[in-house]
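Incident log, support desk, overnight shift.

02:14 A customer reports that sequence design results differ from what the structure should imply. Their input is reproduced verbatim below. On-call engineer (initials T.W.) acknowledged and began investigating.
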């Protein structure tokens, strides 16, 4: 009986959402259909025209209604506009705001900031509706449908906590990432086992890893509990977590590339590929070199720079997200082959080559290791912080394995700690770069190539 009641409530939430949208003009539905058409008919002339028109209208709007962009009225392409980042938005925000919107017509969005430094972005209502439609489309792509229950694993700090009525409306079950101890996880797993509703997981990859390690430790069998989707956000998803979540809950695990200030920019699909389907319907994505604003060669790593096609309140043209990635343009539509995370989290080997944060997944092969963090101090000196139990007795093997990635000349100093603390955002860095490498000195607020 309970299952039928919950299914009825799922259908009710679905119907209420779209009924309310119709009463407000049906804008979310229009955006949803537009996104689906553009992405699924990517090579059609209509799809190309829609993307070109969206970019052209955004650039014209920015030039006409902002002080910051008014001198770019003769720009011929988006590449003639400057590259911006979080710092430049903080410094020039007043001049970047569109004069076409009053304070009553905009919504403020705060980014959590990995180190606690928040960034306030304003968005117009059409942008918020576009984000809602993006979320619906990409969630469905992973198997999650409007009305299902969402087990949301993140940091539920006070200013992000939703009111009870909002949680009920959106059918969210908050899972606080800072509380994932054995007692909490035991209750969570028991709850999900007895919950007959159709549901999905959404959350930090590190939170999913903690869940999987608990299930491993308790020798849990697969949990058949109507899970329809698993979407990892905010952090690199290692292979252990990807495979373990899928094994325990019976559906593919995908990684989503998004941020608070813009929205969903790309997401993997459940077909097993590691490629990220780019949201070309709502963003223009470029991969630029680390030390110039020139595009990288196809497939090479570079800075992920996006143009948000729908935020007219604060136009974000060629916005450096701070993330590193690689694109494959030989396929249609082009995809992101890699999303490596924050530039500031990238560590280099002794030859000056970037090393993926995913190398830290090797810690999973060593019994007794609870947490680890690799810090680059100089070109060839590193600190490995380890939170480990007395069961761990293979430090020599672990350091040698890391040297395979960092180079034989790497000097790794191990330090044992009781805990590697979470950042203000609730995430936990696997890598930290304290070495002042010149390649991060980017030519921002410049249109020179």
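02:41 Re-run completed on a clean worker. Output:
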């Amino acid at each position: 009986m309970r299952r039928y009641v919950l299914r009825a409530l799922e259908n009710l939430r679905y119907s209420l959402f779209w009924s309310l949208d119709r009463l407000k003009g049906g804008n979310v539905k229009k955006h949803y259909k537009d996104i689906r058409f553009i992405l699924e008919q990517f090579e059609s002339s209509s799809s190309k025209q829609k993307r070109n028109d969206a970019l052209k209208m955004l650039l014209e709007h920015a030039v006409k209604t902002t002080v910051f962009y008014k001198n770019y009225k003769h720009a011929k392409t988006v590449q003639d506009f400057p590259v911006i980042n979080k710092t430049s938005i903080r410094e020039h925000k007043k001049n970047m705001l569109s004069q076409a919107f009053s304070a009553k017509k905009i919504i403020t969005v705060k980014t959590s900031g990995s180190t606690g430094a928040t960034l306030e972005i304003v968005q117009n209502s059409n942008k918020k509706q576009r984000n809602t439609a993006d979320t619906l489309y990409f969630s469905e792509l992973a198997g999650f449908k409007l009305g299902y229950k969402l087990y949301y694993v993140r940091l539920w700090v006070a200013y992000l906590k939703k009111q009870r009525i909002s949680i009920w409306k959106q059918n969210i079950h908050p899972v606080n990432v800072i509380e994932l101890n054995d007692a909490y996880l035991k209750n969570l797993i028991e709850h999900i086992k007895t919950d007959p509703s159709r549901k999905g997981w959404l959350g930090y990859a590190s939170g999913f890893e903690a869940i999987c390690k608990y299930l491993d430790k308790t020798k849990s069998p697969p949990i058949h509990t109507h899970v329809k989707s698993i979407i990892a956000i905010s952090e690199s998803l290692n292979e252990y977590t990807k495979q373990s979540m899928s094994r325990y809950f019976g559906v593919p695990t995908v990684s989503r590339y998004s941020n608070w200030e813009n929205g969903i920019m790309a997401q993997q699909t459940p077909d097993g590929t590691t490629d990220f389907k780019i949201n070309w319907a709502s963003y223009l994505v470029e991969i630029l070199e680390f030390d110039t604003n020139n595009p990288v060669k196809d497939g090479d790593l570079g800075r992920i720079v996006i143009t948000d096609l729908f935020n007219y309140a604060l136009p974000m043209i060629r916005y450096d997200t701070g993330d590193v990635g690689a694109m494959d343009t030989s396929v249609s539509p082009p995809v992101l082959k890699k999303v490596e995370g924050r530039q500031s989290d990238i560590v280099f080997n002794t030859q000056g080559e970037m090393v993926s944060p995913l190398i830290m997944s090797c810690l999973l092969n060593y019994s007794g290791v609870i947490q680890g963090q690799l810090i680059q101090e100089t070109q060839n000196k590193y600190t490995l912080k380890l939170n480990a139990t007395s069961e761990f007795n293979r430090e020599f093997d672990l350091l040698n394995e890391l040297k395979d990635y960092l180079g034989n000349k790497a000097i790794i100093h191990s330090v044992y700690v009781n805990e590697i603390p979470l950042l203000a955002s609730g995430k936990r860095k696997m890598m930290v770069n304290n070495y002042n490498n010149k390649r991060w000195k980017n030519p921002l607020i410049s249109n020179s190539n």
